[in-house]
Specification:
The protein is of the alpha+beta class. It is 38% helix and 13% strand. It contains nine helices and eight strands. The chain has a two-stranded antiparallel ribbon with strand order 1-2. Strands 3-5 form a two-stranded parallel ribbon. A two-stranded antiparallel sheet has the order 4-6. A hairpin with a 2-residue loop joins strand 7 and strand 8. Helix 3 crosses helix 4.
Length: 300
């Protein structure tokens, strides 16, 4: 087994200019791993967004664009991280398997649509290792043990799990109606629309119930909806008319109907960087597993 720790998988990555790079991706060794992720506020894995003008109708650079914007979660990041860790400590990791499968295939698209610089070798490696770990957990290749070493890609997988684009909407950073980031965003119904908000609300209810009771039925129900959520690869764009400026802070305009925002009204977020490079970062887990299995049979 010691020889396996030195085994690497060579990933061929192509940048947007079609220049291919070879980058070593750490092998995901089968067995026990510390899979717990941080529950403190997490830094978004995505790039910073361009500022908007004060009326939130245009986005760009220069003196006219003074309003910083951010990606805001509807379900709190803390709830998502606590539920993820609870599934691990309660021995319910395999219940997350369908969600992990979806994540493994979509993390690279999250990154591309989120403006991540996938031409950066370190970032690219982290994305592939996170995707591999998601598949490793889904298949039982790795299992949880708190005193074991963390596997490659754990922190990146944790980031993309709690920052799934389907749970995010873009809005002014300086909000006057979001005082407690650890709570569910009820006002977001006026931004993301009632159908999507109702789904997020049901996920949140089930996750909170699971955290409080450890009842696997709540986790199973949440994962069913989250698997659909994970298929959304872009954050909800900013619609200026759904915000109002009061006393120097922005508030969601709760007097508006909760229908889905009109696409024609929306302003575009900043363009994704190196999306071609991101899309090429497919998981290498199955090839890696095949090599490791072959090595085990050859050198028992």
């Amino acid at each position: 087994m010691a020889a396996l720790k030195n085994l690497i998988v060579v990933l061929v990555m192509c940048s947007s200019s079609c220049i291919c790079l070879a980058q070593q991706v750490a092998t995901l060794i089968p067995g026990a791993s510390n899979l717990l992720i941080q529950t403190t506020p997490s830094i978004s894995p995505y790039s910073l967004l361009l500022n908007f003008n004060a009326s939130l109708t245009q986005q760009g650079t220069g003196a006219a664009y003074t309003v910083p914007v951010s990606r805001h979660p509807v379900i709190s990041l803390r709830t998502l991280s606590l539920a993820y860790n609870a599934a691990i400590t309660n021995g319910h990791l395999r219940t997350l398997a369908p969600l992990m499968e979806t994540l493994s295939n979509n993390i690279r698209q999250y990154a591309g649509n989120g403006g991540v610089n996938c031409a950066d070798a370190t970032i690219a490696t982290g994305i592939v290792q996170a995707s591999n770990l998601a598949l490793g957990q889904a298949t039982g290749w790795v299992y949880a043990q708190s005193n074991a070493r963390p596997p490659p890609g754990r922190d990146q997988l944790g980031q993309y799990f709690i920052w799934m684009p389907g749970n995010l909407f873009i809005g002014p950073t300086n909000r006057g109606d979001r005082l407690h980031e650890q709570e569910f965003d009820h006002n977001a119904i006026h931004v993301v629309g009632r159908p999507h908000w109702l789904k997020l609300n049901q996920i949140n209810v089930n996750l909170v119930q699971y955290i409080n009771t450890s009842n696997i039925s709540f986790l199973t129900a949440a994962v069913l909806d989250m698997n659909t959520l994970a298929s959304t690869t872009s954050s909800q764009v900013l619609v200026g008319s759904r915000w109002e400026l009061r006393n120097g802070q922005y508030f969601i305009n709760t007097s508006l109907p909760t229908s889905i925002p009109d696409v024609e009204e929306t302003s575009q977020s900043n363009a994704a960087l190196n999306s071609a490079a991101c899309n090429g970062l497919t998981p290498t887990f199955r090839q890696m597993r095949a090599r490791l299995t072959a090595a085990l049979f050859k050198n028992p």
